[in-house]
Amino acid sequence: MQKNVIMSVDHLSKDFVIRGKKLGEKNKLLHALSNVSFDIYKGETLGIIGESGCGKSTLGRCLVKLHKPSGGTITYNGKDLWNMPVYDREAARRDIQMIFQDPYSSLDPRKTASYSIEEAMKVHHIGDTARERRQKALEYLQEVGLDIQHMERYPHEFSGGQRQRVNIARALSMEPKIIVCDEPVSALDVSIQAQILNILMDLKDEFHFSYLFIAHDLLVVHHISDRIAVMYLGRIVEIADSNELNENPIHPYTQSLLSAVPYPDPKMARERHRIVLEGDVPSPMNPPSGCRFHTRCPYATQKCREEMPQFKEHEPGHWAACHLLDK
């Protein structure tokens, strides 16, 4: 079955300039993303996992045009996202929405929940009248489990989970094709996390859009994702279907991440082999030569230290970048 690609990321890179703190000190480059490539299919959830600082959020912000890439291309519906005609550019801004990690700072503290949703619709010319936009705002709040009594409340009057529901309703009001979720449940209590995840899954089934779901919790990502991409120090090291990645991880970094996932069964937890990585994640301002994971990989060879591995398909639908897989 041929999958419909709605967005394609090709050799994406993003560098940030870090200015010298002292007089005469040279500026440095922080390599947040390096040569990142993947596709997002229509109606799927692509999970992105990795340690803090690996470039996950930067990737999401590039897709919603909050960060301009330093290199590479992002193609949406066959057109370059950063070089579209004005009409297509406005449509893409509406079609690609983002749900942020902090549900409080992503809402205006001086505006009601209803206003935040209605104003977004007004900017993007959704709804012909104020009355129609208000009715739509209520409908979208009801989709996420809120009701009319929440419309005139301010962000400080909501709980964290309710604020995130308002953010989801605001993104939903744009009638999007892709929603980038940047760790949308990491700031919430565990019990609330499950509720928000279920809402996100139900909405995808109802409205048939795609998610790029960014998180560092493997259990959460496995629960919600159709495919999972693993990032390390600004690069994608492995992509596969969710179940395939959990049952058959082929990159050493992915194997170490999965070995750290807690098991509820104490007996299984004791019998499982835990892979402990030594050392710290290198600085993205001075990444290692060759494979970026070689400084912590227990299987690294001289070739790993000198030559960057090619990201390629080792099994149908299962991509990875590792010299050891070529043997």
Describe the overall structure.
An 8-stranded mixed sheet has the order 6-7-8-3-9-10-12-11, sandwiched between helices. The longest helix is centred in the middle third of the chain and has 18 residues, at 190-207. With 327 residues, the chain is an alpha/beta fold. The chain has 11 helices and 12 strands. The mean pLDDT is 91. Helix 4 crosses helix 5 (160-172) and helix 5 (160-172) runs parallel beside helix 6.
Helix content: 25-40%
Radius of gyration: 21 Å
Succession of helices and strands: EEEHEEHEHHHEHEHEEHHHHEE
For the residues shown, what is the average pLDDT?
91
Distance between the termini: 31 Å
Strand content: 15-25%
Main features:
327 residues, alpha/beta, 8-stranded mixed beta sheet, 11 helices, globular
Quick overview:
The chain is of the alpha/beta class and 327 residues long. Helices cover 32% and strands 23% of the residues. It contains 11 helices and 12 strands.
